[in-house]
Amino acid sequence: xxxxxxxxxxxxxxxxxxxxxxxxxxxxxxxxxxxxxxxxxxxxxxxxxxxxxxxxxxxxxxxxxxxxxxxxxxxxxxxxxxxxxxxxxxxxxxxxxxxxxxxxxxxxxxxxxxxxxxxxxxxxxxxxxxxxxxxxxxxxxxxxxxxxxxxxxxxxxxxxxxxxxxxxxxxxxxxxxxxxxxxxxxxxxxxxxxxxxxxxxxxxxxxxxxxxxxxxxxxxxxxxxxxxxxxxxxxxxxxxxxxxxxxxxxxxxxxxxxxxx
Length: 261
Description:
261 residues; Arc Repressor Mutant, subunit A; Rossmann fold; DeoR-like_C; transcription regulation; transcription; DeoR/GlpR transcriptional regulator
């Protein structure tokens, strides 16, 4: 094996570990080689037990470390902003909405700062920071136990607060999402709260950029209700989206300008 091949394969494993799913086309463009070369790389890495292939991409077989919110803020920035723009356009005057913790829902809170006659409840410090000076937005913090890594509140106090409220719309984030099992997170505490959040509104949106589709980095899952909407960016290919549409999930892919593709 040449040095160039070895270096490229090591870089592919590192990329999969730090940013998750990457398509063959993305890897081909990134490393300046053909798609067939990338497929040979992936096949060998899979045979070596270093990677597992998913919907058109790769993920590490080793335990996937949970990224901090600080790390996530720098990932897929444009995609998250586009998703947030689309989501904000769904929110109407006088509504009460619930925002999960996370970087994409934080971007949504940023888009809602100039709203009037709006109530936003949240479990995330990012959303609170975005809305702290939004004088015309009523802000409710669910409270609970702070997870420093994700900068979100979880636990029985947050769950009890949820029982006292219902919402016009709920916007959830995720470490990963699949059509079969729903939202994947690092801890059962997080998934328990997300299920409770999804149960407090008929309109449930899961906001995730394309790299999170079809991944299984952890072993804790939040089942989604029968009807929910997956909102992702236009970089998601058909192989990643088709399992969701086949399962009856409403799927929205958003262009960089925040319009539906």
